[in-house]
Specification:
alpha/beta; D-Maltodextrin-Binding Protein, domain 2; 6-stranded mixed beta sheet
Length: 335
């Protein structure tokens, strides 16, 4: 063998392992541990599915305590996390536009939300992630049916008055306050104890999380009031981290996440029903607010302060909340 050819082969052989190493990527990804939720059930499947879809070249490592849930979007922006399954309700101050799903009466079911995703909502939310958090939105989803857990029945709008409510978004807090309730902040991990000890009288959460936290052991009233119906989450990746991902992996990752998202939405309605059934079998009394009570709850006098507050937050954040609400209402009119 000629010396020049031998040297070329040796160099090529030496570079192959380096090239292979350069193509293997690991992402540190944050999420919020909401036990029992469809959000967590979906997330659990992601590492194995992405590893399989990329033939082991992208590995996702999940962490729920590395960065607190409310701080994860900022951590993605700053590069402290490569990515996050970010939950929207905590972003009311900095990115209020993503909380459109909490506006009373705007989008009242998951099916309508899903229909609006690709005509407009996905792109509108992606703009916020890019502008506010230097992040690329790769997938989105929703928590299951929202409910109110309480010791005493809440069966009329008047029953809200004077009760201390743990809510998870600014819009719900404004509505509860308007009808006489008292929004009370409680750390996520302490809400079961807070309800048990009477620090709060009622807790707003998803039905899956209600099961995951064992609420049936501390309270027996389960109410569905259609408050904050759509609680979205987004899988977002730091823009520089996404840019560095090998070009041939990007379409594989996007395609697999889209499959995960579609399966997530397909499962949502049944998941909610199963969890409501479990809560009832655990001894809880189910109450679904009838149309006449919902009409009182969502009267113009009660709803206007919520929208006004949300519009004001968007004005301060530099986003156009009024335009988005108009787009949503125009789309609904065509359904």
């Amino acid at each position: 063998m000629k010396p020049k050819r031998t040297l070329t082969l040796l160099l090529a052989g030496a570079l192959l392992p380096l090239a292979a190493m350069a193509q293997n990527v690991k992402w540190t990804v944050g999420y919020t541990n909401a036990p029992g939720s469809l959000y967590v059930e979906t997330i659990k499947t992601v590492p194995a599915r992405i590893e399989a879809a990329t033939q082991g070249r992208l590995k996702i490592e999940l962490y729920d305590t590395l960065v607190a849930g409310a701080e994860q979007p900022a951590a993605v922006r700053d590069g402290r996390l490569d990515a996050s399954f970010a939950v929207s309700p905590w972003l009311s101050a900095e990115a209020p536009l993503v909380n459109f799903g909490a506006l009373p009466g705007l989008i009242t079911d998951q099916e309508t939300y899903q229909k609006m995703l690709d005509p407009m909502l996905r792109a509108e939310v992606a703009k916020v992630w890019a502008a506010k958090y230097n992040a690329r939105q790769v997938a989105t989803g929703v928590f299951e049916e929202q409910c109110i857990i309480s010791k005493a029945p809440i069966r009329t709008v008047a029953d809200f008055a004077g009760k201390k409510f743990r809510v998870h978004n600014t819009e719900a807090a404004t509505l509860i306050s308007t009808i006489g309730g008292v929004p009370t902040p409680i750390p996520f991990g302490e809400i079961t104890t807070a309800l048990q000890r009477g620090i709060v009288d009622a807790v707003m959460t998803s039905v899956g999380t209600a099961n995951g936290f064992g609420f049936a052991s501390v309270a027996k009233q389960l109410s569905i009031w259609r408050i904050g119906t759509i609680v979205p989450w987004s899988f977002v990746v730091n823009q520089q981290v996404w840019t560095k991902l090998p070009a041939d992996l990007k379409p594989l990752v996007e395609a697999e996440f889209r499959k995960i998202e579609q399966e997530h939405f397909a499962r949502a309605a049944q998941f909610s029903k199963e969890n409501i059934d479990r809560l009832v079998k655990s001894g809880m009394t189910l109450y679904v607010a009838p149309p006449e009570e919902l009409a009182k709850l969502f009267s113009p006098a009660n709803v206007k302060p919520v929208y006004d507050t949300w519009y004001s937050l968007n004005d301060k954040a530099g986003t156009d909340g009024r335009a988005l609400v108009k787009q949503i209402n125009d789309f609904k009119a065509k359904l």
